[in-house]
What we know:
With about 425 residues, the protein is α/β, with parallel strands linked by helices. The chain has two domains: about 5-200, NAD(P)-binding Rossmann-like Domain (Rossmann fold), CATH 3.40.50.720; about 210-425, NAD(P)-binding Rossmann-like Domain (Rossmann fold), CATH 3.40.50.720. Helix content is about 40%, strand content about 15%. The protein has helices spanning about 15-25, 35-45, 55-65, 95-105, 125-135, 160-165, 175-185, 200-230, 235-240, 265-270, 275-300, 325-335, 365, 380-385, 385-390, 410-415, and strands at about 5-10, 30, 65-70, 80, 115, 145-150, 170, 195, 310, 340-345, 355-360, 370-375, 400, 415-420. The strands form two sheets. Strands 3-2-1-4-5-6-7-8 form an eight-stranded mixed β-sheet, sandwiched between helices. α8 runs parallel beside α11 (about 275-300) and α11 (about 275-300) crosses α12. It is elongated, with a radius of gyration of 24 Å. The mean pLDDT is about 95. Bound molecules: ligand SAJ. Ligand SAJ binds near residues 120, 212, 250 and 260.
Amino acid sequence: MKFEKLCVLGLGYIGLPTSSTFASHGLKVVGVDVNPRVVKSLSQGKLHIYEPGLRTLVQAGLRSGNLVVSEAPEPADAFIISVPTPFKEDKKADLSYVISATKAIVPHLRKGNLVVLESTSPPLTTTDVVVPILERSGLKAGEDFMVAYSPERVLPGQILRELIENARVIGGIDKASAEAGRDLYGIFVRGEIILTDATTAEMVKIMENTYRDVNIGIATEFSRLAERFGVNVWEAIAIANLHPRVSILKPGIGVGGHCISVDPWFFVEAAPDITPLIATARRVNDAQPRFIVDLVRRAMGENLSGRRVAVLGLAYKPNVDDMRESPAVDVARILAESGAQVKAFDPFKPEMEIAGVEVIDTLEEAIADAEALVLTVGHKDLCELDPAVVAGKTDARLALDMIHGWDVAAWEGAGFTIKGLGIRQE
Length: 426
Ligand code: SAJ
């Protein structure tokens, strides 16, 4: 099938890279977002999110005329839905964005169209939620138009490369839908394109992120065990990973982001009676920020009231500006709730609001009068800080490294006492 015009609903971390990549491969793309501020700033070439290389690609798309942004969809050969699927307080998937985006397509749906859902969704969403809404158009799925589920699987920070190079799963509601999806994504995907049915593709996506969450969960518990037994967890993991069939992930301050900390709940919600391991891993990882604050207590004393703490790093993982479900934000917030005077700094997001926390836009100001520096995110700039220089800019002589980012000998050499997750005290 040949595609000339594409309409992408949702211009976030996935929709915007996808729109601009299609545009750079010659398609006419209408990128749609319901947020007028996003549409306005994008139409001026200003991006509301940070992803390496994305600004250049979007600006090139806009300049060439292949990419236009709009608040409303319009007729096209294919529609891609890439809106968020957050979860609600009760950990149930919030499909309201998927539903409203699907409804917005209905008036524009024509015979021969392909509609692809990319948003991570609980199993059966494509067949049981999306298809019935699209059929309100009077057209019949599988006869008049095609529907597929194709999960995004790109890693924030490397989205533009992975979008093209990763294997792509396309699950159709029937064979023709899957094949149409292959023709569409085949325009830029260089990785293998695997065709399957829609529900398998939905499950694959959640399985991948659940697998990672459970594996981080075990690393998290290893870090607690190491703490109890006075073992350096980083050394223990490095040694265990020499085994040819062992590959333990990195423990840290918890699991954040909009994917791994959310998606496993979609399985638990759909089938709570058969998912105790998945639910437990989620709870273990969610509890890690509190464990990290306990480590701060152990280093600074039980009563944190009035203690001056600098939290370095707020993003959910290194070298991104994304704060969604960030465990670093939780650490800062819990420290503040425990009475500490928290100043926090993130080089990727100098301005943001966290209740009780002073977010400072320069490192110097954040650390100047601190008693302890807590490294929470492995941003390159923070890991590469020169401890000798830092020592001249802060009153703190206690460095708490929660993510294995600082060299113990170098920080000790600069006059700091260094403690943190999994670091054995000699
Ligand atoms: N983390 C650890 N230890 C590790 C690895 C990660 O604590 O060893 C933490 C990170 O600090 C972060 C969280 O886990 O807080 C998630 O980070 P990540 O880099 O593992 O994953 P995401 O959420 O950025 O992207 C994941 C990816 N999925 C897999 O690797 C299976 C990506 O391919 C997906 O496209 C993305 O979720 C998504 O959108 O679903």
